[in-house]
Each structure stands twice: as structure tokens, then as C-alpha cells.
Amino acid sequence: GTPLFMRAPGEATGSIALESAIDEIAWACGMDPLAFRLKNYAEVEPISGKPFSSKALRACYEQGAARFGWVKRSLQPRQMRDDAGLLVGWGMGTATFPALMFQAEARAAIRRDGSGVMEIGAHDMGQGAWTALAQIAADAVGLDIDRVAFKAGTSDLPDAGIAGGSAHTATAGAAIHSAGAAVIAKLADLATNDERSPLFGAGNTGVIARAGRLIRRDDESRSESYAEILARAGVAEIEARGTGAPNPAAMEEYAMHAHGAVFAEVKVDPELAQVRVTRMVGAFAAGRIVNPRMVQSQLFGGMIWGMSFALHEEAVTDRRSGRIMNANLGEYHVPVNADVPPLEMITVEEHDPHVNALGIKGVGEIGITGSAGAVANAVWHATGVRVRRFPIRIEELLVQR
């Protein structure tokens, strides 16, 4: 078969070329790579001219550089060594990925016992989507997470669209948020239109949902549980549906991206040109963070994948037959545990009211972008050799040296 794109299609391959080129320009100008990027910081999207819906890239640069210790970097290549005499190189790369949204639908229900149900056909490939979506569901219906039956992953549930484009949590989460708001509005109608309720006359906007109760905004001492409202109305269950979809008006007005900065250290044997990545720091701004531990896992995975792009992975094609010659994990090299350096990840606070109802941007792929460029630039800083074909190979470093 034909080799397909690497994850973060376009961005992964494009960013390593772009970040290497930016480093070359900075060197030609006699500037530190970070200082050069800050000097040319774009306040609007260069291609469209649109303002960003939010952009905390400058904070990513600052926080990532401070954590990494970038200020100690030498400007000249081949100037830093460790106690064992290995060449040390520090490189950086900018990470960016579009904040996408697809179409999704969800169904929410409140049962007579006061518990909730959320149904959506979202699937989880191991990235933790169901955990994050269950959290959003509980928040949307104002219940503790163990009081919500979260159902997902089958085709007879409302369509959640694809899990791709770093858009699954944003898309499905927006649908869940919408469905939750709709079912709470129905519940509020029952209470605020019933003279027997302490919420009578408050109207939909005059109540909030919290901990399984509707509470008056103007007097929090007046509240009523979901179970009490449904029991008095003689209703076993109420349900509502909601949708998640892109906002055309916001997309027309704003450029929407997640951003980040990745810093990498490599050590290179000066005689054998063996390269090892010894540490990486990434700082990322991706809107609202739903589950910090899962975001960390996604971003660590992306950073490792970016390192792998720079140093390990290559699909070899037989030019005569078109066959892939290394279609197995014995010959298609990916990092193993011993290859992965200590990783640090910073999530930079960012509020984005335009990207979607929840202010969520995807993190599934942005960790890859920037990381490969950071490693490639670190190899140049250690060796003085600029490699233009990836993955970087020992023989290329030896020949060009």
C-alpha cells in the first residue's frame, strides 16, 4: 500500500521544514532563535489577516523557555559539552494546530430519582475521550459524575461524528453541553411554572443547576431537587437533544488555533555522531482543559511522536515495485522506553469564548508539531550540521561534518 500521512497531516511535515528554516534565518541574522520568533510574532493570522480567537503563544514561549533554562543557550553551535565530552545542543520549535469542529448530536435525560443520562455515539480509541465527555456531561446536567449514566460507543446512539482532527472532545462535548442545557431548561419550565414550587416565577434564566438541584439565582436558600420537581409533575423522565457544530460567523471573523512551544536538548557523540534526546519541555495553550492528566498524556505522546519523526520513523519504498520494504515494527523504527527522555509539559491558561461553547481546543496532534523541529534544531546546535532529510541519520552527520 501507499504510505499515508503522519498524524497531524500537513502540520507535522510542514512544521519541521518551517521551524528548521526559521532557525536558519535566525542564525543568518545573528539572533537567538527564540528572540527571532518573538521579534516576528504575528498578532493576526498571516495568510487570512484575521485576528486570532485567542493566542497565548507568547506565554508558551516565556513559560517553556523559563522551565527549560533557555537563557543559558550559546548562540554558536558546537560550543556546549557535558562532563563526558558529549556535544550538547538546544533547539526549539513552535507548535500550532487548527481548532476544528465537526457535527455531533447528544441526548440528555433526567430521571425521576434525580439521576441523569447522557447518550452520544462517541468512540474512544484510548485517548480518554469517554472520561472527558462524562465529565462534561455531569457538569452539563448539574450532577456528580457518579449520578450520570454516560452511554457511548454504539451506532444506535446519536451520531458524534469522527474522532479525528483533534476535534472529538470539542465537537462531542459541545453537543453534550447543548443537550444538558436543553434538558435543564425543560426541568426549569416544570418548576418555575408550578405555583407549588419555591422556584415559581423565577423563569428559566432565574435558576441554576447544581448538585442535583435547581436553585434561584436571586435567593439561593430557595431550591428544589430534580426528583422533587419530577415527582410533583408526575413525570418519570424528561429528555432533550442538543447539537455541536461549527459557528460560521465566528469562523468568518476569527482564525482559530491551539499553540505551543517545544524545547529539546540532545547529546551527540563527537566521534560516532550518535544522537540521544536527553530532555524536552513543552508549553501549550489549548483553551479550556477538561482533564489535565489526560491532556498531559496526549501531549507527552505527541512530543514523543515528534521526536520519532526527527530521529526514527521512515517508510522505505521499493522504487521498482512500489512495495513498502519495512512494513513491520522490526524494521520501521519507533521509540522504545529507553529512547524517551524526561518530559515536562506546561498547560498555559487560555480563555477562548469564540472557538466553541466550551472554549475547548484539541490537543491530540499539536504535541507532534514543533517537537520534530525542536529536535532537528537541537541536533544542528550540537553539531553545526543542518540536515534536510528526515529521519536524521548518523551517516549524514558524519559526511557533512
Portion in beta strands = 15-25%
In CATH, what is the homologous superfamily of the largest domain?
Aldehyde oxidase/xanthine dehydrogenase, molybdopterin binding domain
Series of secondary-structure elements, N-terminal to C-terminal: HHHEEEEHEHEEEHEHEEHEHH
DSSP strand count: 12
Total number of distinct structural domains: 2
* DSSP helix fraction: 25-40%
Could you tell me the mean pLDDT?
Answer: 95
Reported CATH architecture of the largest domain: 2-Layer Sandwich
Which oligomeric state applies?
Answer: single chain
Question: How large is the radius of gyration?
Answer: 25 Å
CATH topology of the largest domain: Aldehyde Oxidoreductase, domain 4
Provide the spatial order of strands within the biggest beta sheet: 1-2-10-11-12
How many helical stretches? 10
Structural write-up:
The structure is a single chain. The protein is α+β, with helices and mostly antiparallel strands and 401 residues long. It folds into two domains: 240 residues, Aldehyde oxidase/xanthine dehydrogenase, molybdopterin binding domain (Aldehyde Oxidoreductase, domain 4, 2-Layer Sandwich), CATH 3.30.365; 142 residues, Aldehyde oxidase/xanthine dehydrogenase, molybdopterin binding domain (Aldehyde Oxidoreductase, domain 4), CATH 3.30.365.10. Helix content is 32%, strand content 20%. It is built from ten helices and twelve strands. Helix 4 links the parallel strand 4 and strand 5. Helix 8 packs across helix 9. The longest helix is centred in the middle third of the chain and has 25 residues.
